[in-house]
Specification:
Elements (H helix, E strand, L loop, with lengths): L2 H20 L7 H6 L20 H13 L5 H14 L13 H11 L27 H4 L4 H12 L6 H18 L4 H18 L4 H5 L2 H4 L17 H14 L3 H9 L5 H16 L6 H6 L3 H18 L1
Family: Belongs to the ADP-ribosylglycohydrolase family.
Cofactor: Mg(2+)
Keywords: Hydrolase, Magnesium, Metal-binding
Length: 317
């Protein structure tokens, strides 16, 4: 297995296992979970599904990765999302059991002929975490491109379901963080580097300073120093991004980072999927508890997808 293949595998499993850890307690409050914290892969709970069942977060991640095993094509990505929602493509156990409102509306628009790139709402009220949770495979396609091209491609892929600038910036920050991990940088070094690079780049695009200011806790402060009660874990894209970076910076391995994300409560599967993607990349597949990997639905299919994506991306580079 090449190092590049290993990185892709680490990212895909990182997302899916974080997601599966959170599914059984999704929507539970932090206070409720605190009475019986999640310490291992469990099942049933919110959706009454077996341990290792991943949700829409991973399914859509895999749909994007699947599309990228071919030449880059926004239409193909959009159609894969339609096939997931309407035909159960890349579902864990043959059924869709969770989908966000904005994501569902965008997918239905695509199904009725809307061009994928313009299907996502650009309304400020449509800033759920639905594009952030699935964006990670795009890293492997854009990693060697200049920053403006990385941004433009990422913006189009986010906008399939979430087109507002806040969702776009969130995806951009996340992929830039992941890219620096790929380059072998240390997480706090990355955090500090992005505090200069991201604002400078966004300023060069003349993006509204008001929108950039929403990211001040990441771009100006040290989010790792905030107390847990200051970190929100709802489905709002900015909460998900902040929570995942906070978990990553405060924990020093995959297991603890993803469990911390789950135990924050509320949108547990997505917070842990987003955290898990970065933690998988940072620490590597071999650091993910083996019993979690063994319980994961469709693990052989995910392994195969990682291999096919690595082959395609290897050809591209």
């Amino acid at each position: 297995m090449t190092d590049f293949h290993y990185k892709i595998k680490s990212a895909l499993f990182g997302v899916a296992i974080g997601d599966a850890l959170g599914v059984p307690v999704e929507f539970k409050s932090r206070e409720t979970i605190l009475q019986k914290p999640v310490t291992d892969m469990i099942g049933y709970g919110t959706y009454n599904l077996p341990p290792g069942t991943f949700s829409d977060d991973s399914s859509m991640t895999f749909c994007l990765a699947e599309a990228l095993t071919h030449d880059f094509d926004l239409h193909r990505i959009g159609q894969n999302f339609v096939k997931w929602y309407h035909e159960n493509l890349w579902t864990a156990r043959g059924e869709v059991f969770d989908i966000g409102i904005a994501t569902r509306e965008a997918i239905n628009k695509i199904a009725h002929g809307k061009q994928a790139e313009f299907a996502g709402s650009t309304d400020a009220s449509s800033n759920g975490n639905g594009s952030l949770m699935r964006i990670l495979p795009l890293l492997f396609y854009i990693k060697n491109l200049p920053i403006f091209e990385r941004y433009e491609i990422m913006k189009k892929v986010s906008s399939i379901t979430h087109g507002h600038i806040r969702s776009v910036i969130s995806c951009f920050y996340y992929l830039e963080f992941a890219r620096e991990i790929l380059l072998g940088k240390e997480k706090f070094e990355i955090y500090q580097k992005l505090q200069t690079e991201i604002p400078n780049f966004l300023k060069s695009l003349s993006i509204d300073q008001y929108e950039i200011s929403f990211f001040n806790r990441l771009l100006k402060d040290d989010i790792s120093e905030l107390a847990e009660h200051e970190i929100s874990s709802s489905g709002y894209v900015l909460h998900s991004l902040e929570a995942s970076i906070w978990c990553l910076l405060n924990m020093d391995n995959y297991k603890d980072a993803t469990l911390k994300a789950v135990n924050l409560g509320e949108d547990t599967d997505t917070t842990a999927a987003i955290t898990g993607g970065l933690a998988g990349l940072l620490y590597g597949f071999d650091t993910i508890p083996l019993n979690w990997v063994e319980q994961l639905a469709r693990k052989d299919d995910i392994e195969d997808l990682a291999e096919r994506l690595a082959k395609k991306m290897g050809e591209k580079s």
